[in-house]
Amino acid sequence: MLSPTPRTRHRRMKDNGRADRADLTAVLAAGLVAHLGVLVDGHPMVVPTVYGFDEQRIFLHGSVASRSLTVKNEVCVTVTVLDGLILARSVFEHGINYRSAMIYGVPVPVTDPDDLLYGLRLLTEHVAPGQWDYARPPSTKELAATTLLAVPLDEASVKISDGPPDDGDGPDAALGLWAGRLPVAATWGTPVADPLLPAGIEPPPHISNRTGRPITG
Amino acid sequence: MLSPTPRTRHRRMKDNGRADRADLTAVLAAGLVAHLGVLVDGHPMVVPTVYGFDEQRIFLHGSVASRSLTVKNEVCVTVTVLDGLILARSVFEHGINYRSAMIYGVPVPVTDPDDLLYGLRLLTEHVAPGQWDYARPPSTKELAATTLLAVPLDEASVKISDGPPDDGDGPDAALGLWAGRLPVAATWGTPVADPLLPAGIEPPPHISNRTGRPITG
């Protein structure tokens, strides 16, 4: 699609400059799991998957979408970060505060060995920074067994809902009810060692230092 | 569809008894946001939305999917709860621990006034138990402006990944690297009052008591 699409609240990232792209990458940086929507036998299927990204592409593990890849269909990749609840005076004005990015594009299987390593590194480092250099890198055989998809970050929309409920200056304010936000605080917990791990091997600092820190930016 | 579908790892809830249904409702109870996959102009679109559910149906706010509702297309509703990271000795064995439910069905707009109130109550109480009776209920005008969808819980699949990494008894164990899980702890934060709220109105206990508690079951 070379022209803006009819989908609402939609932006072509190439056309809309730095502000939109910064919003997009901020949401992608804050999220951990994407929901990939693919067409399977004419019906939408939505599967959760981890991802990595750079300025041009979002990378996804492709096994989840393998059946849809026989056709070069457009997919939708949605990353949502839940920030909290909006608790209003009226049921009608309740909602959630969240940041969400929706990316539309035709996924490209990553087959070039260097590009595959590059994408897998982005994916690993997005989820667990420091882990790519700590863990054993993929072997040639493992790389051959890995399906990685890249979706260009060319067409995307970003929605951000924050702030208080909407009925603070309407008639419902007179009800005297409490209203506001209830934030969600998602943090990393304490590392749990593999039961098969020999005694004396401690988690590396890039893992243990995360405990108590927010998982979203 | 009256016969089992060809989609893999798929279960017809009516046929597979209580264990599968209990798995499904446990995931739905633990999650807060669903990702709704709908077909728009032949392409999948994935939108985040809150939901409520009972034993038969999942209820979703319909405005997000309004354009797709001109056709009675099947949708996919996916609820994912992230439990943590699987940190293995090899990059290849990394992954996430999660619980996920995928529900397939044709959404039915809820138009009966009693059923609409019933579904909205489930939705509100799932996100904020106690809030339906605390807040002002929807007016007739508000109900008329509300689009609620119900998707039957008849065809669904549940995937649960937990436990340690998979390479603890392979050759990579000899690398001497730490491996295990890094849990995600999502808790409710401290309520933030609407800036327009008059002084002296405190959050009700059903809200303030949530602070520090896990958001997922």
TrEMBL record, chains A, B:
Residues 196-217 are annotated as: Disordered. It holds the Pfam family Pyridox_ox_2. Gene3D superfamilies: Electron Transport, Fmn-binding Protein, Chain A. Transmembrane segments: none annotated. Coiled coil: none annotated. This is Flavin-nucleotide-binding protein. The lineage of its organism: Bacteria, Bacillati, Actinomycetota, Actinomycetes, Micromonosporales.
